[in-house]
Amino acid sequence: MTARNISRFWEWGRKIICVGRNYADHAKELKNAIPKEPVLFLKPPTAYVREGSPILVPLYSSNLHHEVELGVVIGKGGTAISQSAAMEHVAGYALCLDMTARDIQDECKSKGLPWTMAKAFNTSCPVSEFIPKERIPDPGKVNLWLKVNDQLRQSGCTSQMIFSVPYLISYISDFITLEEGDLILTGTPKGVSAVQEHDELQAGIEDIVTMSFRVDRQEH
Ligand SMILES: CC(=O)CC(=O)C(=O)O
Ligand SMILES: [Mg+2]
């Protein structure tokens, strides 16, 4: 068997664990309360999409939103990881989008139902190339941005996160065992907005990484 390469973690079929409402300005723009504990949900590995393939608007949604987020790639698994040891479990990072069918999420919220159809559909997790850990010495101090058709929509710094990367790793690993190749999406800053078929999305982490995606409508 050939050795797997963490720089292609999206091919491993591992978990994508997402943190919601981790930026107060985004929680406020959607009129959500500021959380006292991390809000978590999951995406399946089939949600990954890479540059060169389009983001698909699900047939059942007419309000697909972008959410730009810092992704943390787990390099060493563990359960009940302490905050002080958390960074030893990080292999690197990725720039990610948490594509969200906002109309479906609102409906699910109003009915008290889970967000799966709003957050976990195919292509709901566009992901950049792998960023080795050394390139982001402090994940609590990097700027993320996103443009739609060259218009800046999101710009925020991870210093605005309510729960830090070490806190999230420790908190999650208390009840979900983290495995090598898992990805944690750490939440989005304010500025989320709708995208349409044929839009061009561009996102970046400072001058460390950029990525571009075209939006298409799912055909069947
Ligand atoms: C309300 C949300 O969709 C939460 C979320 O995903 C976030 O990043 O915040
Ligand atoms: Mg999100």
Automatic annotation (TrEMBL):
Give the organism's phylogenetic lineage: Eukaryota, Metazoa, Chordata, Craniata, Vertebrata
The UniProt entry, under InterPro entries, shows: Fumarylacetoacetase-like_C, Fumarylacetoacetase_C_sf
Q: Does the keyword Metal-binding apply?
A: yes
Q: Which reaction does it catalyse?
A: oxaloacetate = enol-oxaloacetate; oxaloacetate + H(+) = pyruvate + CO2; 3-fumarylpyruvate + H2O = fumarate + pyruvate + H(+); acetylpyruvate + H2O = acetate + pyruvate + H(+)
Q: Which Pfam families match?
A: FAA_hydrolase
Supply one GO CC term from the record. mitochondrion
**Has keyword Metal-binding?**
yes
What name has this protein been given in UniProt? Oxaloacetate tautomerase FAHD1, mitochondrial
* Gene coding for it: FAHD1
